[in-house]
Amino acid sequence: MSFIAPTLLAALPLVALPIIIHLINQRRFQTIRWGAMMFLLAANRLSRGYARLRQWLIMAFRMLAIAGLIFAIARPLASGWLGLTAGGRPDTTIVLLDRSPSMQETGPGGGSTKLETGRQRLVQALKMLGSSHWVLVDSTTNKAVEIESPDGLINSPASESASSASDLPAMLQAAHDYIQANKSGRTEIWICSDLRENDWDSESGRWQTLRESFREFPQGVRFHLLAYPQTTSENVAIRVTDVRRLQTSEAAELFLSLKLTRTPLLDSTSANSRGPDSKISIPIQFEIDGARSEMTIEMEGTQFELKDHRIPLERSHERGWGRVSIPADANLADNEFCFVFDRPVPRVAIILADDSQAARPLELAAAISPDPSVTTSAEIIGEEQLTTVEWEKVSLLVWQSPLPKGQTANIVKSFVERGGQALFLPPATPGPEQLFGVGWKKWVAEPEEITVDNFRGDQDLLANTQSGAALPVGQLQIRRYAELSTELSVEAFTPLASVRGGKPLLARATTPRGGAYFLATTPAPGDSSLATGGVVLYVLVQRALAAGAGVLSSTRQFVAGAQPEDDPATWQRITGDERAISTEFPFHRGVYAAGERLLAVNRPAAEDQAPVMADQRVSELFRGLDYSRVNDQAGSLGSLIQEIWRLFLAAMIVALIVEAGLCLPKLARARESLLKSEPEGFKA
Amino acid sequence: MFPDRHARSFLDAAVLSRLAAVPLFARKPMVGAVSGRHPSPYRGSSVEFAEYRKYVPGDDLRRLDWRAYGRSDRFYVKEFEADTNLRCCLVLDTSGSMDFGSTGITKIEYARRVAGALGYLALLQGDAVGLSCVANGIVRNIPPRRNPAHLTTVFDILEQAKPQNETQLAPVLHELAETIRQRALIIILSDFFVEPELLRGCFQHLRFRKHDVAAFHLLDPQELGFTFRRPMRFLDMEGGPAVFAEPNEIADRYLKVLEEYLVQIKQIMLESAMDYHRVTIDEDYEKVLTRFLVGRTRAKGAR
């Protein structure tokens, strides 16, 4: 139990008051000359057990009454937040609010979401506790914002639900930076979250650093975690995995691929629970530019995929937006997914090669379209033509030549900067030049052909195919490769594939935007089998092209929370969350128009089936810190902390009543009447 | 009324004159020296016919009922009840505890008033009055006399009686039972702070001696109620050890013991055919005496 006014507890010694009064009373006795001593002596001889006990009980109840009064005015709080405010009012209270879509889950009886409940609870609790400064770190911007009062949590747009995932370590870092920058005094950090693994990123190395840096604060930082770990009821999330617009001579169609993910009830013993194997039918509603159609699917198991669902379009309808939705369930935030479509952008590749043997396979790989609806083209140019290229139409630059310098390097850099993709291959004679901190060293010729030791199949250019099969990278034969050099102390590149000895074969240079890849060998027959086993090269080039084209496209699928290229304040909402303010558009699901472009913002994929962290894992994250946790449920009505002075007052009253009852002379009235009865003279 | 004209603090002429309207009767036949208001165990010369008795030689011929002789040719003597005076012995407890009084009057003072009034009333109707002051023994004792001048002596002794020493009521009562001639009215004024069982023997003894015994049990309201609030040190008025007590703590048991005592003493008084009056000393003594006298009027007549 903790107290709002713990200083008043200093009055607790007053509890001894009845004893002191008793002792004083004992000392100031009166003396009387008394006749009826025989009764007194007899009374003294009688057992004094009960009377003595009664005396002590009366004393105890008096003390209890005083204690009750003192505790009541110290304003005790009943809550799970043990040791809540020992030491009184904190100087700064920082609230870390997880606004991720999973926080939109409602409780078992519907009603409020986890986020709403958490906010209410926090406001109630924080108002009661008081603080000098209030700071909110919300999960979208990860910036510490001072607020006037806890009420700000209810009304602020920065505390409404968002579609972006949270990054708890980053939020804690923001809190840490705030404390450091403002030299705040005793600080309390309140975290309201549903403990999803993807939000907390508990494996991250950042936690270790955070723990240590928080421990270094001399003023003491206290963590309170208001957790909503319960996944209350069955929930289905819908997601569009692919959208393509295909046009034949007769008609245009939109091919939509959907994925439905279902969270089954963890508690399979409850009566109304349906196992993950039970069949449910879900009506899916499609909305294309406001026109709706519906389709019902039967879902079995935890996942359902709908591949290439066709929706006919007007031929003239080349560009637009749409939305798929399912009926409301436990979590409203994942029942809708927005998408935008457009006629594919022509994919243009520029190839600059010294070696024609290397250039040809690259040109072929870039020029052959994977899809009849996509036009691709590749052009081999010389370095002198670079200035004349229409860079705003180029998706991929392939550079097999000494790394550019000066003006040329600037052109390439700005191309990558705007989101273009560049693939660098080693020239015949590597020079000392570097680009993006990476350069070529000398060629290494292997006595016999070597293979790729390992490669990253989970993401980027060599990722597995949509069906999950790995690319045949292992079958590649490398005869000769150039080593990468870097002068920067930090890793300037991320290896995507490497050969024996950990030498990178394909690496991605660290750039803020766009992509700069370094392939350590060429498709020339003397260098590798990239050209003969053309699948890897083709996929690699086409993926780079697609990524480059994606930036150029006038439509864009956008994961909420990612950094947009342009100022979101200029976006216009077409559909989406009405409560979102314009600066927060990148964090809210919806379709937005940014000038000529259409943007669909959606929640990250990890939100759909994010596991809840185990309790032990959570407490490990806060190991060594002053940390308390309370589990709550969405929609629960009680207050997080409650003032229970009434209870103490009631206890005091009860103690007083019992004390009064004990003080009453036992059957005094009856006895008195007996003694006072008029004795008639007895006659013989 | 007051031969020496000396005003006594414990006598109130108005009260006495009111009380004089009710005669003081004995409940049992008394043996007196002269004729009076009380029944006697003997035949006498009152107007109240008692019985016919066969003439035996030696009887006074004047008392022969000639009419009866005329009717029956036998000699009968006509006998009448005798009315006599009584000896009223006032027994005043002068032990230390009698000095207690919380309502402005002590028990001994109250006893003085009662004794004084009764003595006066008895003498007024021609009875003899005596007084014994008792504590741990018989302190003063004057035998009953019906001389009005004797009353002055009684009042003097009453006035001089000083409450001191402990109560030794039982041996004293036994002694009085023996020393007072048979068939007297004995009025005991005491707080009876003695084990009730000890008193039983005394009362039986008095009854055996054919005395008519009345007892005024004088108690202070404070003693009955034990209404103390603060811790008290009780000093024994009869010289015993002092007791320190917390009234809140002890009151219960005190009252319990007191109640048992009162029940027991009442029981003993009943069994011993005593004329028992428990008197709380804040009560008006005139009322108490009226009740006493009227009660006795109703009980009068047994021979």
Query: Biggest sheet of chain B, in brief?
Result: 6 strands, mixed
Note poorly predicted spans of chain A: 267-273, 677-684
Radius of gyration of chain B: 23 Å
Oligomer class: heterodimer
* Portion in beta strands of chain A: 25-35%
Number of strands of chain A: 34
Relevant terms:
heterodimer; A: alpha/beta; 14 helices; 34 strands; elongated; disordered C terminus; B: 303 residues; alpha/beta; six-stranded mixed beta sheet; two-stranded antiparallel ribbon; 9 helices; 25% strand
Q: Can you summarize this structure?
A:
The complex is a heterodimer of chains A (684) and B (303). Chain A is an alpha/beta fold.
What does this structure look like?
The complex is a heterodimer of chains A (684) and B (303). Chain A is 25% helix and 31% strand. Chain A has an 8-stranded mixed β-sheet, with helices on both faces. Chain A has a 6-stranded mixed β-sheet with strand order 8-7-4-9-10-33. Chain B is 38% helix and 25% strand. Chain B has 9 helices and 10 strands. In chain B, β6, α6 and β7 (212-219) form a beta-alpha-beta unit. Classes of the chains: A alpha/beta (684), B alpha/beta (303). At the A-B interface, β2, α2, α3 and α14 of A face α7, β8, β9, α8 and β10 of B.
What's the topology here?
The complex is a heterodimer of chains A (684) and B (303).
Chain A: E1 2-3, H1 17-27, E2 30-34, H2 37-45, H3 49-73, E3 76-78, E4 92-97, E5 106-107, E6 110-113, H4 114-129, E7 133-138, E8 144-147, H5 152-155, H6 168-182, E9 187-193, H7 197-200, H8 206-215, E10 221-227, E11 235-247, E12 252-263, E13 280-288, E14 291-299, E15 303-313, E16 320-325, E17 336-341, E18 347-353, H9 356-367, E19 376-380, E20 396-400, H10 406-417, E21 421-425, E22 434-435, E23 438-450, E24 452-455, E25 478-486, E26 493-499, E27 504-509, E28 515-519, H11 534-552, E29 555-559, E30 572-576, E31 590-594, E32 597-602, H12 615-621, E33 626-631, E34 642-643, H13 645-663, H14 668-676
Parallel strand pairs in A: 4-7, 4-9, 9-10, 10-33, 18-19, 18-20, 20-21, 21-28, 29-32
Antiparallel strand pairs in A: 1-3, 3-34, 5-6, 7-8, 11-12, 12-15, 13-14, 13-16, 16-17, 22-23, 23-25, 24-26, 26-27, 27-28, 30-31, 31-32
Helix pairs in contact in A: 3-13, 6-8, 9-11
Chain B: H1 13-19, E1 38-54, H2 66-72, E2 76-84, E3 87-93, H3 107-124, E4 128-134, E5 138-145, H4 148-160, H5 169-179, E6 185-190, H6 196-208, E7 212-219, H7 221-225, E8 232-236, E9 243-245, H8 247-271, E10 275-280, H9 285-299
Parallel strand pairs in B: 3-4, 3-6, 6-7, 7-10
Antiparallel strand pairs in B: 1-2, 4-5, 8-9
